[in-house]
Every structure is written in structure tokens, then in C-alpha cells.
Amino acid sequence: MTSPVFPGTPVPLQTHARYTRDEALAALGVQRPGTVREGVRWVPEERSDIFFITVRKSEKHYSPTTMYQDRAVTPSIFQWESQGRTSAQSDTGQRYIHQRERGTFVHLFIREDKESDGSLGTPPYLYAGTASYMSHTNDRPMRILWHLERDLPGDMFHAARVAAG
Q1: What is the tally of structural domains in the chain?
Q2: CB 29 within 8 A of CB 45
Q3: Which of 15, 16, 40, 130 has its CA 20 to 30 A from that of 153?
């Protein structure tokens, strides 16, 4: 069941609904969303970090440096790895770590894989909703545990847990 992420605001997203990258980016105020090529995007006007996560990665679509260890730990805890250049001391790393104090938002968009389904194109992402920083280990990339405001649906939890091994 879907529900509005920010009831009473102009952000037209529903948690547990599915969106293409362009739809998600446009909903969060990104002008020209088709130009975004990375799986992370900081949108200062919305005070939001947007993460696009594919849990089952293949060498066909990902380089060895982008085979991040992203997975569901529990229905409400998600492990995510930052880009390889992000350290805990960097501005970006500090924004992640101090997310609550700084009043910023983290939005997780998750899909099982990137394989096209015939003429339908790549699969859309499930909008898992907003998440709060819990802890991190490692550096370059940072391995961060995020607490989801709303548990993942059972099918996505299973896929995100199984795909990562």
C-alpha cells in the first residue's frame, strides 16, 4: 500500500510506489532529470539526497568499482555503499552522518535488477521512502546503515536480502 511521503506538500511521491529515474528526479525538483547519470544526487533546494539502488548487479551493467554492497539487513534497515570517492571527512560524508542535525532528507529508490523487460525498458524503482542515518564503517566507499521510516514491502525485502547473498 502506498502513502504520501510528505503529506500536505508539493512533493508528489508515494512510498512503495514505483517510479522511473526521471519521474523521481522531477518529483524532487531536479531540472532536466534526463541529464543525471549517477546513482546519487544532492538537490540543495529540497535539502535532499536521492539514491538510486540496484541490488542485483551484474558485470554486464556495472564496473568493478561500482559493484556496491547494497542490501536489506532487516525490513527497516538498509546497508548502502557510497560512491568510491566519498570519505567520512568529505562534505558529502559529513552531510550523510549529520543528516538529522542538518535537517536534510535521504530518499531511497530501490530495484532488484537493471535487466530490460522486452520493450518495456529498464525496471522502475520502488520508492522506499525517507531514511535516517544510523552508523557507518569503511571509507571510500562508506558503508552506511540507514533506518527506513517505513518497512520495505515483503517482496522487495526478500529481493534486496537474497540478491546481496
Answers
A1: 1
A2: yes
A3: 40
- SS3 for the chain is CCEECCCCCCCCCEECCEECHHHHHHHCCCCCHHHCCCCEEEEHHHCEEEEEEECCCCCCCCCHHHCCCCEEEECCEEEEECCCCCCCCCHHHHHHHCHHHHCCEEEEEEECCCCCCHHHCCCCEEEEEEEEEEEEECCCCCEEEEEECCCCCHHHHHHHHHCCC
pTM for the whole thing?
Answer: 0.87
Can you give the CATH number for the domain in which 113 is found?
A: 2.30.280
The answer to whether the beta carbons of residues 80 and 144 sit under 8 Å apart is yes
pLDDT band at 65 (very low <50, low <70, confident <90, very high): low
As a whole number of angstroms, the distance between CA 84 and CA 100 comes to 23
Give phi and psi for 34, each to the nearest 5.
-65, -15
- All three cell numbers of 134: 544510523
Interval 113-126 mean pLDDT: 77
User: Domain range spanning residue 36?
Assistant: 3-162
Q: Answer for the pair 108, 131: CB distance below 8 angstroms, yes or no.
A: yes
CA–CA dist 52, 29 (Å, integer): 16
Determine the average pLDDT of the residues in 28-54: 88
Length of the chain: 165
Average pLDDT along the chain? 86
